[in-house]
Amino acid sequence: MLALEAALLNKGLLTAEELDARTRQFSDDPSAEVARRNDAGLAERVRRRIFQPQPLEQQAASPSRFAVGDAIVVRNIHPHRKSIGRAAMSGNHDHNGEHHPEPQSYAALRTKAIESLLIEKGLLSTDAIDVRVQAYEQDIGPLNGAKVVVRAWTDAEYKRRLLEDGTAAIAELGFFGAQGAEIIVLENTPTVHNVVVCTLCSCYPWPVLGLPPRWYKSDAYRARVVIEPRAVLQEFGLALDESVEVRVWDSNSDIRYMVLPERPEDTKNMDADALAALVTRDSMIGVAQVKTPMPTA
């Protein structure tokens, strides 16, 4: 986020003054939402770029902007600004029985400020953002995880490697990178059901699951799934037999967890693509099971 902010300021697309003012506005009114502006053409170009990426053109290397010993000026855009913190703190408790929205982090406020200003200036559209978020949250990321799951279902040796060293086995399929330096894979069985949370923030295995869904980052999920996992799973529509042990795993900045769901019955004759279509993001977090496919007529 800081790199994006610096780039927008350096290119003159935003000014520090308007960005600070908009951040304070969202801090003073936590319930304020970013105004929507749709642009079907831009959204379609984003969708095309994501799902049908064009090969990058070879470009001549640009000369370095700085030489060793050059004097440079660094802009201070560190996120911890006390004024924002104090403003956000004012919403911490109820007054006269009225509920106040939960204070948002500086990063969340700054992100809303950047998004709203870019939309107002016509440089961005809400539906283009939605397309990109949905692609990485529901499509591209979880598809990677589904390929890992299917490989484990159909290759016993790969499954052994996956459970012993998830990071290395996942990398065999070409999935690695940010938020995936250490991934541990947890196997669901008829007697043990695993579910993943990050109680501190929203640590999540991006290379195999994409972006974390909003509910995964919510205070309610992060607090309740540790205390009453069965009740939370039931709210997701998953009712487990009392004989099944539920294990809750807390991801952190060092280790991310991914669930290897049970393979449903009546899938022995299905090919890899058909199996992958059964695997959902929620089943790899542990709040759902992979459902048995409906019989075809």
Automatic annotation (TrEMBL):
Query: Where in the numbering of this chain does the Nitrile hydratase alpha/Thiocyanate hydrolase gamma domain appear?
Result: 107-288
Entry keyword set: Metal-binding
Origin superkingdom:
Eukaryota
One Gene Ontology molecular-function label? transition metal ion binding
Q: Which Pfam families match?
A: NHase_alpha (PF02979)
Q: What is this protein called?
A: Nitrile hydratase subunit alpha
